[in-house]
Amino acid sequence: MAIVLAAVNLGDSESGGISTLVPGSASPLPSGPDPVSARAGITKIKHIVIVMQENRSFDSYFGTFPGADGLPRGADGRIAVCLPDPQASSCARSYHDRNDVNGGGPHRYDHAIADIDAGAMDGFVRQAERARASGACTDPNAPDCLKGVSRSVMGYHDGRDLPNYWAYARSYVLQDRMFEPNLSWSLPAHLFTVSEWSASCASHDPTSCRGAVEAPDLPTDFAPKRRPTRAAPTYAWTDLTYLLHRAGVSWRYYVSTGAEPDCEDDAALTCPPVFQNPRTPGIWNPLPAFDTVKQDHQLKDITSVAQFRRAAAHGTLPAVSWVIPSAAVSDHPAAKISDGQTYVTGLVNDVMRGPDWSSTAIFLTWDDWGGFYDHVQPPVVDGAGYGLRVPGLVISPYARQGYIDHQTLSFDAYAKFIEDRFLRGLRLDPTTDGRPDPRPDVRENTAGLGNLLADFDFGRPARGPMLLPLRPRTDLVQGPQQPLTSRASGR
User: Fold this and answer.
1) Which residues have C-beta within 8 Å of that of residue 316, sequence separation ≥ 6?
2) In this predicted model, what pLDDT tens digit does every residue of 84-134 receive, in sequence order?
3) Are 270 and 263 in contact (CB under 8 A)?
């Protein structure tokens, strides 16, 4: 099938300014398609697919995308970012990083707080250097310490490096205020994605759970000094699959077989590769540990990405899909970003070729910022987030064309869209969902959270597929590339 590129419209007429309220909703919609028809048109979406990649900030992938809130520029139009660099007694500038393999930086809760630095957004280089000098880099989430990988927290990629990601942004919707739901690393982000909370539970009683944005329980084979058992932790609080199952709404959580990216023992720098598949509970596959999934006999609905491809081909996609990579194709340092782009393109092409394309919405995002620089201070939401800004894309035959969504969003908006489409607006609310737990708030109802309906124009006919090459030509280089102009004296 021929490759068809959609026209691009990045004009100010679709700036995304808030102007209209949807009846019965506290979430404003930007000006554009009629909000009433948008709310009615959501029923045209019969399949929601959330593709989760790993460890990239918005500025690191789309910081130079035209019309987006990207890397700050000076009066001369040049990127004007130079962060304190204590080791060099100077400052480190943003630079175009052509490396296919990047380093990134540490990204636990304390690193997020230090990177944000009370809104100055200037701690990224300091944190990367401290991780490197910390005495063998004991932080498991510090890819900056990987041997042979140059530090790249100030590096950014563009359309020459990531032609397919940028093609989706030009032809569909790019979200430039998508925030990780929590100020922390991968596991809490994935827990929020499926349950709107990250917690630790003393027992299988949901009321025993307490918020744990940095250290939710891990599979016991990753706990220090314990014999590997691969036993699941206890996640007793309520997750979204509980509501979907009760309403008879189909779902699948598709996991790529392979290795996980991070050591899960926070006392270890390196560890043997941890194998993941649909049956192994892990940092990217938390659902096997949820009591609700086991009680509802839905472990079988956690399956392989190969099954996703078959479902897409045969027109049997469930109502809700989560699609999770392995380390090699995750974009997580030190994986090649070209391999991640190929993997994502293959997933999107599979959906576009299949019978379900005309009724599908694909939401593509990255689970956390991975230590990479971003200039936007996250909004403050309860005690857990929001975390730093990550890329967000909407790919659908009904997605607005060449549109940049400036609404404030987080992964909570995905849950909200699923609930609005399939659950008549029922939320993960302990006062209404039938399984009380002590979560501090109902994240989907957070004041200021945008509405993904704004990214669709259901008044227009469904657009045909836009198939892209799996291995597009890029200007990425495979060897180490130290930026020659990344530093400047003084500040």
Assistant:
1) 310, 356
2) 988 888 899 999 999 999 988 888 999 999 999 999 999 999 988 887 665
3) yes
